[in-house]
Amino acid sequence: PATPAPATTESGYGITDTSEDEGPAFDGKGYGLAKGTANTYIIPGMEEMSAQEYRDKLQETISARQAKRREESLKSREGKIGNANSQSYLDGLSNKGA
């Protein structure tokens, strides 16, 4: 039989790492995301916001990121944005654009 994990939490249950990766063990931070991954739903001060305030602020931050991506795309990709940009990429892979 398997040896149970040592009791390390207040509830008396231990934590057993069953992953096969070689990275560091989960430290309980980061909402379960890989280190270095940005969580776009985390907004500074969100714990103190009402649900409506959070939704409004989240929409504001999403809209700002979209506007920034659009501006950068228009500058660097000859005015192609969204699906036109994706189609251009796919055309390049199949040499249809040449």
Straight-line distance between termini = 64 Å
- What's the tally of helices? 2
Shape: flat
* CA-atom Rg in angstroms: 23 Å
Biggest sheet layout: none
Structural class: mainly alpha
Q: Roughly what fraction of the amino acids lie in strands?
A: under 5%
Low-confidence stretches: none
List the secondary-structure elements in sequence, H or E.
Answer: HH
How much helix is in the residues? Answer: 25-40%
Number of strands: 0
Walk me through the structure:
It is a single chain. By secondary structure, the chain is mainly α. The chain is 40% helix and 0% strand. The protein has two helices and no strands. The longest helix is centred in the middle third of the chain and has 26 residues, at 51-76. The model has no long low-confidence stretch (mean pLDDT 74).
Q: Summarize this, please?
A:
This protein is mostly helical and 98 residues long. 40% of the residues lie in helices and 0% in strands. The chain contains 2 helices and no strands.
Write the layout of secondary structure elements.
Elements: H1 51-76, H2 82-94
